[in-house]
Amino acid sequence: MARKLMLGTGLVLSALGIVILGTTASAQVKQGKTRPAETKYLMRGIVQPNCAGLGKLLKASGPADEKAWDTAACHAACLNEVGHLLMADGRCPDGKWAGASKTLQSESAAVLEACKKQDLKAASAAFKKMTQSCAACHKAHKK
Ligand code: HEC
């Protein structure tokens, strides 16, 4: 009898735990724990413009001059910072998110390095790998 009661209480508690964990995880995805910037604003305000700007510059024959290469490097550097921001303030809910952020960090760093050397082939290859991180995280976490 006591065992049955304990089992019942245990089940109720785990169900409650799942509900609580579930809500925190989705709250984290949309926003970090203490800072006000919502994930969608990091995406719209920083990720999207820098990713689009970089993609445009790396098209065809690549950045036309010193200044354009420096702008491409600037986009890559900003994207790299977002890779770190996405892991900060308790925003990361799981391994998929962490893995995608890690890819964003490492591949944007590779783009940055290639831009400093004005190596279009290496920059484009790393850019392509970097954008796979967008798809990987969105598939798991973007509603
Ligand atoms: C680690 C996870 C993660 C990575 C990596 C990521 N995103 Fe997102 N992105 C999200 C989530 C979560 C949302 C949905 C946010 C919401 O609606 O609350 C989102 C939403 C967006 C949006 C819509 C923003 C809006 O205005 O509502 C755009 C655009 C976007 N991402 C672009 C990108 C691009 C481009 C990349 C790659 C360079 C990228 N994201 C990488 C998690 C990620």
Automatic annotation (TrEMBL):
<protein>
    <recommendedName>
        <fullName>Cytochrome C</fullName>
    </recommendedName>
</protein>
<dbReference type="InterPro" id="IPR010980">
    <property type="entry name" value="Cyt_c/b562"/>
</dbReference>
<dbReference type="GO" id="GO:0009055">
    <property type="term" value="F:electron transfer activity"/>
</dbReference>
<dbReference type="GO" id="GO:0022900">
    <property type="term" value="P:electron transport chain"/>
</dbReference>
<dbReference type="GO" id="GO:0005506">
    <property type="term" value="F:iron ion binding"/>
</dbReference>
<dbReference type="GO" id="GO:0020037">
    <property type="term" value="F:heme binding"/>
</dbReference>
